[in-house]
Design brief:
Blueprint (H helix, E strand, L loop, with lengths): L1 E6 L6 H18 L3 E6 L13 E8 L6 H9 L9 E8 L8 H13 L3 E8 L2 H4 L4 H18 L3 E5 L4 H14 L1
Parallel strand pairs: 1-2, 1-3, 3-4, 4-5, 5-6
Helix pairs in contact: 1-5
Length: 180
């Protein structure tokens, strides 16, 4: 099995995306024993798309909409015929609630259906800036490992993770408001 991890974020999110995409790539290569490659959507050669069995679109949401680089990628591969592909999304948002990513996942699912690909689901990560600078990175890394196994097995996925549990988020929010 060959998996393409396609970074489709805007430039400002590059370092964050590299961290998570590289970790996912290591899990594919070392733990799942499958070939994987991390590519940038802007420089990716559409002619090599037929070499892959699955694509993980990795992108950040800053305004709640799908990144223009991903839409441009969809245009570039229009008409490229490939074998059946399993499509997954790994979407990151700045907000606490990872449900913010849902609309972009629906856009990718619609695109996949329209082109005869199999949309298998998403791994949504909320408050990703906080995660990269906290111990929550360890938790997200465990979720990435589970996600890599899901992709390897071609299973459906609907995972969400954020920096804090809802209980701790509310607790910290209450402490903040009591100070005011």
């Amino acid at each position: 099995m060959n998996v393409l991890v396609l970074k489709a974020s805007l430039k400002h999110a590059g370092a964050t995306m590299d961290l998570f995409c590289d970790k996912l790539n290591v899990f594919f290569d070392k733990r799942c024993n499958i070939e994987s490659k991390v590519e940038n959507s802007v420089t990716f050669d559409p002619g090599t798309l037929r070499n892959y069995d699955a694509i993980v679109f990795a992108y950040t949401l800053t305004t709640g909409s799908i990144p223009s680089t991903l839409l441009e990628f969809f245009d570039r591969i229009e008409g490229v015929r490939t074998k059946d592909l399993n499509i997954y999304t790994m979407a990151f948002c700045e907000e606490y609630e990872p449900k913010v990513c849902q609309h972009s996942n629906e856009v990718v699912a619609f695109w996949a259906q329209r082109h005869g690909y199999h949309y298998r689901g998403s791994f949504n990560i909320g408050s990703y800036f906080v995660i990269t600078r906290s111990p929550a990175l360890f938790v997200v890394t465990n979720y990435l490992q589970m996600f890599s196994n899901i992709v390897k097995n071609g299973q459906e996925c609907n995972q969400e993770v954020s920096a804090l549990t809802k209980k701790s988020f509310l607790s910290q929010g209450n402490r903040y408001w009591k100070k005011q």
